[in-house]
């Protein structure tokens, strides 16, 4: 998973929290893909929320756009 080796736009120490948030993001993607049509929307919103949670801690630029993606 390339998300764990992505370079930060600003050189800050973020490994532990970033790994936790990345893992949750990937779990939400897997759940969304495995879910039936009636549950996929919930996992989609969970995936978007995991993006928001990470970007609230690192690189807040995309937050406004991410919040608009929720269903």
Question: Secondary-structure map with pairings?
Answer:
Blueprint lengths: L14 H20 L2 H21 L5 H6 L3
Helix pairs in contact: 1-2
Care to describe what's here?
- This protein has 71 residues and is mainly α.
- The chain is built from three helices and no strands.
- It has helices spanning 15-34, 37-57, 63-68.
- Helix 1 packs antiparallel against helix 2.
- The longest helix has 21 residues, at 37-57.
Helix content, binned percent: 55-70%
Which term fits the overall shape? globular
Q: Into which percentage range does the β-strand content fall?
A: under 5%
Could you give the distance between the termini? 26 Å
- What does the largest sheet look like? none
**Overall radius of gyration:** 13 Å
**Class computed from helices, strands and strand pairing:** mainly alpha
Low-confidence stretches: none
Instruction: Report the total helices.
Output: 3
Quote the average pLDDT: 87
Let me know the number of strands: 0
Tell me the series of helices and strands, N- to C-terminal. Answer: HHH
Can you summarize this structure?
This protein is mainly alpha-helical.
Features:
single chain; 71 residues; mainly alpha; 66% helix
